[in-house]
Every structure is written in structure tokens, then in C-alpha cells.
Amino acid sequence: MKRLRLLALFAVFALVVAACGDSGGDTTTTTAAPGDTTTAAPGDTTTAAPGDSTTAAPASMAGQGGELLLLQWQAVTHLNPYTGTGTKDIQAASLVIEPLLEYDTDGNLSPSLVTEVPTLANGGQSADLTQLTYNLLPGVTWSDGAPFTADDVVFTWEYCTQSEGCGSSQFETVTSVEAVDDLTVTITFDSPHPWPYLPFVGGTEPVVQRAQFTPCVGEGFVACEANLTPVGTGPFMVEEMRVDDTVTYAYNPNYRGAAEGKPFFTSATIKGGGTAEDSARSVLSTGEADYAWNLQVPPEILNQMEAEGNGVVDVGFNTSVEGIRLNQTNPDGDPPSDYAGGANPNPFFAQNADLARALSLAINRDEIAVVAYGAAGAPTCNVWPVPGPALSTNNDWCLTQDIDEANRILEEDLGYVDSNGDGIRELPDGTPLSWDYVTSTNQVRQDTQALVESYWTQIGVEINMRNEDAGVFFDRSSDLGIWKFFTDIQMYTNSAVGADAQGYFNSYTIAQVPESTNDWGGNNIPRCARADFDAVWEELSNTGLEDPKRNELIIELNDMHVEYCLIPLINRGSVSAFANSLTGYGKVNGWDTEYWNIEDWARS
């Protein structure tokens, strides 16, 4: 175990340091979902709440602790991460369905449904790095009482790879998943995988039950009823699912920790709707709720609420970056925003590094951090922002606003002038630099939009600011959602699940471009399709964890992606509020779902 922790920490700091969704809530893409989650280096959290320990509840109190009220203002749409929804849904699903491994609050791999993390040292990883063998925990059952076996793990792989629209990219290099026996499963990759902890790892990659999900394979994948009521191995069971509103759970009496008093609470409710400020107020001011997630609230307001003494605010950092996506495909094409093999380029942004640089130079990231984020955000120029040898410094020019240089690039290098004197520059063909700029509805994002508009106005760029309800914006099936990207510009947060850059950057390969032909199933939302990027990623995936070249490749991938696909703004911390009476949660987990240890939560 000590060796495992050292390996994980080495991966976090020395190698990759790392995410569907906005996951973080905004989404997560394999990492991350794009989403509204936060980020930062392990250990970057605020002071823990009084009594904030992880001591298990007494056995006599299993399921006897009453109701746990959890607020997620971005309401839950699905309870199945494989449907490709945002962090809000991945969070809600994690009370019920679980992965084989999860990440703890420091980015270390932790066994969930297995006896240990397989490594080269313990024989779980093959010497040629092409196989990984997991030994499942004995005696685990699904909440319906059926035994959890290796066959369910095999089925999950079959289910995702045989269904259009599966939101996971972690099976792409898997050639087989085989049940050696009921408690042993072997994953075989198509090439050596120095970092093999991708399938079935983290909240985005849970195991689903064969008996329940067999009807969901193939054409029934997206509309399957099981997506709303999954049977799981976790501490809670779905009692009622009201889409885009409320999820109620009952404790799972068949949970493997029941004999140890886990979970403590009789029931849990995730209530959606309202605003981030409403959620914060319910925990910090009125004391009506136990937990509030993803508090995108102006820092001065959050500080005032916390001072009332009913709860505490905690921040967890990892890889989350709030950024502006520049659509590489044409939203006015036919069909709109389809990659179409490169035949539908965006007339403004497609491979236009000079334009992206000018837009980035015009932004004052320090001001955005102070006005919108406070202690929960830091300016960044990278999509992979974690300190360490894999952190790029090549883009640090973006940290200094330079309106004059931005104007020079637009006029002299690109020939974009304001020919009619209306204050808006045009392309050489006369098309004005005027775009829809869409994000989710919350005060922090609208404040950011307003600041960006003020900067870009100074360089002759017009933006039409739009915001959509988060439940719609982070819904893969919605025409207003981030995956379809039917506008020129989107802003949200993306982050990695866990500390692996290899898995994260896989999300930006050509195979991950969402389009109509794959039911918008990929995570390369900007449609940044580059053969040279894919080649570097392939090299990374075959470079050993202890090879210094790995850091160089991660930096190269980072720099290629921010060249013209994404304008990074803020390295976001995951900000949540906890009632003073709540114990056992430890600290905000920026590397996995914030409910990763909800079986340990209790009330003092």
C-alpha cells in the first residue's frame, strides 16, 4: 500500500499532475468531463469543519441517522455517467453505482470494489504493460441482493462499446475484458499502457449490473429506464427520480459496510434548481440543508454567509479550468457543427492561432479572478494547470493583458479592420467579428462574460452574451448543450477524473469529436481535430511513468490544445458548503466525485 501511494503521488506531481462535463459540474471529460468542478493541487483546501473526521459511525446506527439533504442547483438529469452527462449527474450516480477504483482527496488511487490496486510490484499489471488484473472484493452484492461478479465488469465493457453515444472514451484501447472467475477480471489493452488506470476508475467509469442493463445495449442506450433507476453496489438505492428536479435515495441494507454502521443516514435527497447562491444560503445562512455543491457565488457574498456560523466553505483543487471554447466547426453549416472529416471549418476560428492569441491577450485574468472567484480561483494559461514538471510555462504571456498587441495582431497580421466605422472589425470578406458567447446561468459566469465583453470591445470584437439553464447546457441530448455546440463560443469548466494526463488528453483526439454520426458521443467538444496531436498522444500512451519524456509530451499536448481551440481563464477550485453538524466528509475531493466517501458521512 505504501508503494501504491508513492506511485500515485509520483504520477500526480512528477509525471502528469492533472480532467465531462462542464463536468463540475460542468462536465467531465475523462477526464473530465466538462463540468462545473474545480481544481487545484492536492492539499489546497480551506480549514476543515469542526469535528471533521472520517471515523465510521457506530454499527448500531447504520441507516438510522435520518435524512441527508444535498443541494445541487444544477439539477440531475440522469443517474448513469455513460450517457455522457455532466458532473452533476456523475455526482448523483455515485451514491448508487461504483467503480473498481476511486481517487481520494489527495489524488491517490483507492480500492473500491477490489482488494487492492493492481501494480507491477504486486503482479496485477503484466510485465509487458498490456494487461491489468483486478481481484474483486468477496461477498459484495447489488442492492437487489444479487451477487456482484466479474461478469458484471465484462458486461459494462460490452454495454458501452456496443452502444452509440456511450460517453466513456476509456475503452477505446481495450481489446478484451475477461472474467477469469467470479472474483477475477483481466483487462487487455491493444498496446503497452504505463498508466492503465482508465477503465472502471473514478466516478465517470462505474460498473453496471448485467441483469438490469442488458435491455439498454445498442439502440436502447440513451432512452433506457435503467439510466434513471440503476441498481448499484453503493451505500444508497434510488427511491424516486424526478428528472431535472429531485432524486431521493434510501440506504442500501445490503451495502458491504452495513455491519460497520455505513451508511449512517436513513435516506438522502439531492434537490436541484434555484441558483448557486440559493444553495449556499440554505446551508450557511438558514441551516436548512447539509451540503451545497459547486458554489459559483461572488466571493464577498459567500464570505458574508459563512460568517453567520451555520456551516463552512471548503475548496478542493485539481485540474479544473474555466475556459472559452472556440468552435473549430461551422455552427451555420449543414449539418451544424459537424466535423464532417474537416469539410465544415469555422470561418473565424478554424486553426486560427493568431486570432486566438489576440482574444487571449485582451483578457485580464487577474481581474476575473478577483471579481468572480476570490480564493477559489487562480489565473491560468493552461488546460493542464497542476504544479510540477508537467506544467507548461510556454503560455505565460497570457497572464499580462496587452490590448495594444491584440489590436496589432488583428489589424497587421490578420488584416481584420473596421471598414465601416461601427466599432466592429471584419474579416477580409466583410463578415464582422460578432459571435454568440454562451455559458450556463450563474452569477460568477455572467460576471466573467461581462468582463470579457468589456475587454473584447476594446479590440473591435462584438459578442452576444447568452446563458442557458445548467440542466440544459450540460445535457448531451439538448440542442442547447455543450456537446452539440451550435454556437461559435462556449464557456464552462472541464477537468480530469484522477491524476492522469494521458486519459485526459485522450478526450481531445480526433476519435472523440462529437458529431451527428456518433450521436454527439465524444468529449472533444471544440472539435479540435489534429493528426499531429493524436500522434503525440500515442507517443505519451507508450511512454513509461518514470521516463522524463512523459512530462515533455504532456506539455506539448497542453500547448497544442490552447493554441487555437481553447482560451484558459481560471484554475477553479471546487467550492462546496457543509453544515457544522455534518462530519466524516474529510475535505472536498477535486479528483473524483465529492460523494466518493459518502458512506462515512454522519451527523454530530
Task: Describe the overall structure.
The protein is of the alpha+beta class and 604 residues long. The chain has a domain at 320-573: Dipeptide-binding Protein, domain 3 (Roll). Helices cover 22% and strands 19% of the residues. The protein is built from 14 helices and 22 strands. It has helices at 2-15, 87-93, 150-161, 210-213, 276-284, 299-306, 353-361, 365-373, 403-413, 443-457, 470-473, 501-506, 531-541, 549-564, and strands at residues 23-24, 28-29, 32-33, 35-36, 67-71, 101-103, 109-111, 131-135, 174-181, 184-189, 236-242, 246-251, 267-271, 291-292, 311-326, 377-379, 434-440, 462-468, 489-494, 566-579, 582-583, 602-603. Strands 5, 11, 12, 13, 14, 15, 16, 17, 18, 19 and 20 form an 11-stranded mixed β-sheet that branches. A 3-stranded antiparallel β-sheet has the order 8-10-9, covered by helices on one side. It has a two-stranded parallel ribbon with strand order 1-4. A hairpin with a 2-residue loop joins strand 2 (28-29) and strand 3. Helix 8 packs antiparallel against helix 10 (443-457). The longest helix is centred in the C-terminal third of the chain and has 16 residues, at 549-564. The protein is globular, with a radius of gyration of 23 Å.
Care to give the gist of this entry?
The protein is an alpha+beta fold and 604 residues long. It has helices spanning 2-15, 87-93, 150-161, 210-213, 276-284, 299-306, 353-361, 365-373, 403-413, 443-457, 470-473, 501-506, 531-541, 549-564, and strands at 23-24, 28-29, 32-33, 35-36, 67-71, 101-103, 109-111, 131-135, 174-181, 184-189, 236-242, 246-251, 267-271, 291-292, 311-326, 377-379, 434-440, 462-468, 489-494, 566-579, 582-583, 602-603.
